[in-house]
What does this fold into?
Amino acid sequence: MEECIGKILIVEDDTALRRSLLTPLSMLGFSVAEAGSGEDALAMIRMSSYEAVLLDINMPGIGGIETCRRLRKLFTRLPIIMLTVLDEEDDKVEALDAGADDYVTKPFKMRELTARIRAAVRRFRAPSLPAQMPIVNGEIVLDPVRHRVERSGVEIHLTPREFDALHSLMNRAGRPVTHAKLLSELRGPGAAMERGYLRVLIGQLRKKLEKDPAQPEYILTDSYIGYRFREA
It folds into this structure.
């Protein structure tokens, strides 16, 4: 019997789309359950354990955003991947601010969706590191206790704000962090519109960490959304 590579819940009101996802994901080795509404999803998730939720943003009833908020309150670590409509950037930002871990835009390629789900399950199964443990991603090592960052064993001198931004991004490696969320963590809730400050800060970080700041390897841009540190 093929080993299950992840137990996931698909929440989508379109039956045809739900079934078009269920069959290939099941063939790839995922254990897949389906719900036709946010209300059904919330009921099912209380009765069974899942390792990721694939959640459509546009549904009747309580809707995808509100479902996401409620799921996140119930399960702080459960990966939630939103299915959004292409170019609806405001929806993506709202979904991430509601607690989603990632998003995939329709129409999507099955290979991309599968990669996002695999990464989400992998993060969910990984043991949580104590807050004081160093974070390692490729050549970059961030030590929150010593307040030290190294690349290939060489210390990189960062300002306190640069360190905090990098810590925030590396803690969520592989997941997008919105401009508003990052600014709120760095400068408080009233700083959500200070995009220029954030662009400069990220630019300085890239100059210090990246081999080619113009072609970043670690700190990636999600256009109109925010930034993500590469998947570990």
